[in-house]
């Protein structure tokens, strides 16, 4: 794969990360979560279940695009500066893991909302 192809794929992953992040965090989360009011958040999760499940799916897509962008930046820079390339990749993957944990917590909240016995 040429460096131009790698750069284009990395740019596409980075753009996808920006789009999915904007939709997932700015639009969906703000529609569901009410800061300081757990009762309203619970009501939103109950009444807007499809939106909440879509938010989890978007968070998983954010994880994928973050990991692809991190890999792409490593592939672009490892020849010139291997330490910096490793650092960018490591921080990108750490961010992907953090977002994955957010998706797990949101999935858990949805499981609690969907199970009346809890």
Give a description of the structure.
The protein has 118 residues and is mainly alpha-helical. It is built from four helices and no strands. It has helices at residues 3-32, 38-47, 49-77, 82-114. α3 (49-77) runs antiparallel to α4 (82-114). The N and C termini lie far apart (52 Å). The model has no long low-confidence stretch (mean pLDDT 93).
Give me the secondary-structure category: mainly alpha
Mean pLDDT: 93
The multimeric state of the shown protein is single chain
* Count, helices: 4
Low-confidence runs: none
Q: What is the percentage of strand-forming residues?
A: under 5%
Report the sheet with the most strands, covering strand number, pairing sense and barrel closure: none
- Shape summary: elongated
**Strand segment count:** 0
Element string (H = helix, E = strand): HHHH
* Helicity level: over 70%
Radius of gyration: 17 Å
- How far apart the termini lie comes to 52 Å
What would the keywords be for this entry?
single chain; elongated; mainly alpha
Question: Would you spell out the secondary-structure blueprint of this structure?
Answer:
Layout: H1 3-32, H2 38-47, H3 49-77, H4 82-114
Summarize the structure.
With 118 residues, this protein is an all-alpha fold.
């Amino acid at each position: 794969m040429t460096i131009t192809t790698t750069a284009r794929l990395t740019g596409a992953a980075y753009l996808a990360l920006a789009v999915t992040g904007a939709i997932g965090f700015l639009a969906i989360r703000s529609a569901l979560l009410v800061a300081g009011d757990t009762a309203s958040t619970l009501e939103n999760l109950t009444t807007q279940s499809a939106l909440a499940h879509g938010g989890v799916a978007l968070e998983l897509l954010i994880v994928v695009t973050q990991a692809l962008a991190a890999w792409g930046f490593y592939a672009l820079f490892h020849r010139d500066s291997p330490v910096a390339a490793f650092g960018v990749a490591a921080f990108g993957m750490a961010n992907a893991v953090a977002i994955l944990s957010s998706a797990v917590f949101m999935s858990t909240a949805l499981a609690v909302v969907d199970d009346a016995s809890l």
